[in-house]
């Protein structure tokens, strides 16, 4: 190879080397996209629900229960024909009618019952004398103290008693216009167990025997 050729290759190689050593034009760095700032989601605010105060409920006051006062059996209701009270009842029958009954049997106190028995005039005609009122014991055993008058309303029949039998010596007036009633008291002792105690009124003119006897079992 001639010196001329060597020099030519040297020039070519030098030119190539110069081209390879030329600095590259730096490219434009990509502009980063802006990152969206995270949007904070507000937490829901708790709403305070007001607590309702309990409504006071008015409790109705119970009405008192009416207690029926028992009507004492005949003849113990005090007659009111002449005392300004209720009017005497209408007669049960047009003629003589006497009704027997117990007014009160209390006890026993120290083994003795306090017994009140009597008679009422409930008919439309006077009952002529005599009239007999007495106690009897159809079953069981009882002993008695002597009977004595306790009251007499709207008339006077002249009663007298012996043991537990009482007799009216005068007529017993009708009802109305008055409301005649008479009552008697005695003490009764029950021997043992139980006994049936009855009061009986008797008058020959009485036209209604259905109410002439009234009985009660003791105790």
Shape: elongated
The CATH superfamily of the domain at 98-218 appears as: Immunoglobulins
Class by SSE composition:
mainly beta
Rounded to the nearest angstrom, the radius of gyration is: 62 Å
Uncertain residue ranges? 1-10, 15-39, 49-54, 64-88
Helical segment tally? 1
Main β sheet profile: 5 strands, antiparallel
CATH class of the domain at 98-218: Mainly Beta
| Strand percent estimate | 25-35%
Overall pLDDT level: 73
Distance between the termini: 169 Å
Fold-level CATH name of the domain at 98-218: Immunoglobulin-like
- Helical proportion? under 10%
Note the run of SSEs as H and E: HEEEEEEEEEE
CATH architecture of the domain at 98-218: Sandwich
The total strand number stands at: 10
Describe the structure.
Keywords: Signal. Residues 36-69, 77-87 have a biased composition (Low complexity). Residues 25-92 are annotated as: Disordered. The protein has 219 residues and is mainly β. It has a domain at 98-218: Sandwich (Immunoglobulin-like). 9% of the residues lie in helices and 33% in strands. The protein is built from 1 helix and 10 strands; from the N terminus they run αββββββββββ. The strands form 2 sheets. Strands 1, 2, 4, 5 and 8 form a 5-stranded antiparallel sheet that branches. It has a 5-stranded antiparallel sheet with strand order 6-7-3-9-10, with no helix packed on it. A hairpin with a 2-residue loop joins strand 1 (98-109) and strand 2. The radius of gyration is 62 Å and the shape is elongated. It starts with a helix and ends with a strand.
